[in-house]
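sorry for the late reply, my laptop died twice this morning and i had to redo everyting from scratch. anyway the thing you sent over, i finally got around to it. pasting the sequence first so we're on the same page, its 137 residues, then the predicted structure underneath. double check i copied it right bc i was rushing
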Amino acid sequence: GIRSLQILNISFNSIRELPDAFPCFPNLRKLALAGNQIQVLPPAISSASKLKELDASQNALAIISTPLIQLENLEVLDLSQNSIALMPEEGWKKNKLKNINLKDNNISEIAKDMLINSNVDNLCLTGNNIDKKKIDY
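ok and here's the structure:
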């Protein structure tokens, strides 16, 4: 049944808001939300504890929420081509993120905790407004 669903692709559907339905998908491993009009990922996304890959590129996201980076099994996060200006300062050490794509957003400052305490192998920040003076880690 639906509780055994591991991959959900609802990309390019003009979706503006996600329901808090993540508890219904306890085995979800991959979630594709690209090309919608989503402004906020709901806090209930934290219940998708087995999620390994999230593609929410090409949406209208303005922030990276703390519940998102606290998904302990998340390895791949694509938030490219959004309007992200803010990211959590702390909490990056608690996950398994290896690949983060933040290309073409409005990020001006990188969270120090993400660079120092995370497990990230591949970080793409191309096309942002990062102030070089604030990178002194």
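The chain is about 5% helix and 15% strand.
thats about all i looked at so far, will dig more tmrw
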